[in-house]
Amino acid sequence: MAAARTLRGVGPYLPPRPVGETGKDDPVATHRPPEAWHREDGQVDAMQRAIAVSAATVGSEGIYTSVVTTAPGGRTRLHHHGPCETSIYVIAGSARFTWGPTGAEHAFEAGPGDVVYIPALEPHVEENPSATEDLVVLVSRNCAEGINHYLD
Question: Between the CA atoms of 39, 24, 63 and 148, what dihedral angle is there, to the nearest 10 degrees?
Fold first, then answer.
């Protein structure tokens, strides 16, 4: 059987370690097909999360990835994600983001193929402004869990 491969030692970020030596009992790489994702309600009834990568799903220590589907007209409460930065890739539909100290000072819309960056601690609201189409986004954060701090 071939030894497991690792990306450690590629670039300046991860120190090299021998191929096949993970430092854990778990494999270096994990395949998570959609049927293996953990599904749960989102922040509001109009949202559904399918969590692919987190501490609970794969034992991650510093990354969280989920696909979030928001029904037409759905929107989050005013919130931030604590110390976590967030990257959001719009897969389908239209998204409206508002942000600022009260969550409403600034706004923009994003569509399929757009990437949205939300800094750590940034109060914001995400909304699906469509009356007919679901909004589907890929969310990644530099923390191992989905963290939401509600401000309203």
Answer: 60
Query: What distance in Å separates the CA atoms of residue 96 and residue 107, rounded to the nearest whole number?
Result: 7
Q: Which helix (H) or strand (E) holds 57?
A: helix 55-58
C-alpha R_g of the chain: 17
pLDDT at 4: 36
Average pLDDT per consecutive 10 residues, the chain (152 residues; last block may be shorter): 39 45 60 89 87 90 94 94 95 96 94 96 96 97 86 86
Strand partners, 126: 97
Question: Which H or E run includes 138?
Answer: strand 135-141
How far is it, in rounded angstroms, from Cα 131 to Cα 22?
48
* 35 SS3 class: helix
